[in-house]
Write a structure and sequence with these properties.
By secondary structure, this protein is α/β, with parallel strands linked by helices. The protein has two domains: 190 residues, FAD/NAD(P)-binding domain, CATH 3.50.50; 112 residues, FAD/NAD(P)-binding domain. The chain is 28% helix and 26% strand. It is built from seven helices and 17 strands. Strands 1, 2, 3, 4, 5, 6 and 17 form a seven-stranded mixed beta sheet that branches. It has a five-stranded parallel beta sheet with strand order 8-15-9-10-11, covered by helices on one side. A three-stranded antiparallel beta sheet has the order 12-13-14, with no helix packed on it. α1 links the parallel β1 and β2. α1 packs parallel to α2 and α1 packs parallel to α7. The radius of gyration is 23 Å and the shape is elongated.
Length: 313
């Protein structure tokens, strides 16, 4: 089962790349483990022409478009990728076939590590949120909380940003110790600061009612934003020896090219802020760059064969 490109990850980045490569008449397979990051969300936003659709609808449409251009979508999980020492990669699936390919695009995304608080994970993607651009408009003018977590810079920025959508924002530093300057900036922004350890979210009748603190207080809130710790699913890339930057993430150029020839990456696996529409664009750009990489190989092979046939150039 030999391909021009195997795309690992069937989200917005991977499917966009698969479609573009199919349109380029490349033999492409998209391998999807079926565990999208945004699965808990009922709607997606900020994606032109798809605003308000469910994530499942977007993925179904993307798969249909990939297959419509001759691409394959394979359900499975990749356990490893190996370079065969020439210009080929071997992609091994759990309990499935081995795929041989000339190029690889990894679009496996990331996972959100949330604070360990009762009620928080169960409401993730509903009324516990992290991206104001994705969900802020839907909770506009509501009582909003911002919960301090391990991702300190992200959380402080998030608190100031969320204020654009509501005049009633409470920041719960929780384990974050604020400096005097940080307190001043948040207060000047019109954000109320409630100190004390957060113990749980008050969830009743399938709805968030508030944030409960260790001293027994419950602050009523209709939605809570939290800053997760973003952990990329980059094991396949690091296993291939792709260079990692000072920030701990795999390094790529503007097209998604890694330090390993023939290996590209796109979407949240190398870009934590990437939204759906950004990831889709990155997948498309990576596909074009990968096609040009294959084109260079095709031309070199054609010249070698031409000369071997005894034609004097």
């Amino acid at each position: 089962m030999e391909y021009d490109v195997v795309v690992v990850g069937g989200g917005a980045a991977g499917l966009s790349a698969g479609m573009m490569l199919g349109r380029s008449r490349r033999r492409v397979a998209v391998i999807d483990a079926g565990a999208p990051r945004n699965a808990p969300a009922t709607h997606l936003h900020g994606f032109l022409s798809r605003d308000g659709a469910s994530p499942a609808e977007l993925l179904a449409a993307g798969r249909a478009e990939v297959m419509g251009y001759g691409g394959e979508v394979i359900t499975g999980r990749v356990r490893g990728i190996e370079h065969d020492g020439e210009c080929r990669f071997v992609v091994r699936l759990d309990g499935g076939p081995e795929l041989t390919t000339r190029g690889v695009l990894v679009a496996t995304g990331l996972r959100d590590e949330l604070p360990d608080l009762p009620g928080l994970r169960a409401r993730w993607g509903n009324d516990v949120l992290h991206c104001p651009y994705c969900h802020g408009f839907e909770v506009r003018d509501a009582p909003i909380g911002v919960l301090g977590g391990d991702n300190r810079p992200f959380t402080l920025h998030q608190a100031a940003l969320v204020r654009q959508w509501s005049a009633d924002v409470v920041f719960f530093p929780n384990r974050i110790v604020l400096t005097d300057e940080e307190r001043e900036r948040l207060t000047a922004r019109g954000i109320r600061i409630v100190d004390g350890a957060v113990t749980r979210l008050d969830v009743r009748e399938d709805r968030l009612h508030g944030v409960e603190l260790a001293d027994g207080r419950t602050v009523p809130r209709a939605a809570v934003f939290v800053g997760p710790r973003f952990v990329p699913h980059d094991e396949l890339l690091t296993g291939l020896g792709c260079q990692v930057g000072e920030n701990g993430w795999v390094s790529t150029d503007a097209t998604g090219r890694t330090s390993v020839p023939g290996v590209w990456a796109a979407g949240n696996v190398v870009d934590s802020p990437a939204q759906l529409i950004t990831a889709a664009g990155a997948g498309s750009a990576a596909a074009v760059a990968l096609n040009h990489h294959l084109l260079a190989e095709d031309v070199e092979r054609a010249v070698t064969n031409y000369r071997a046939a005894g034609v004097v150039v």
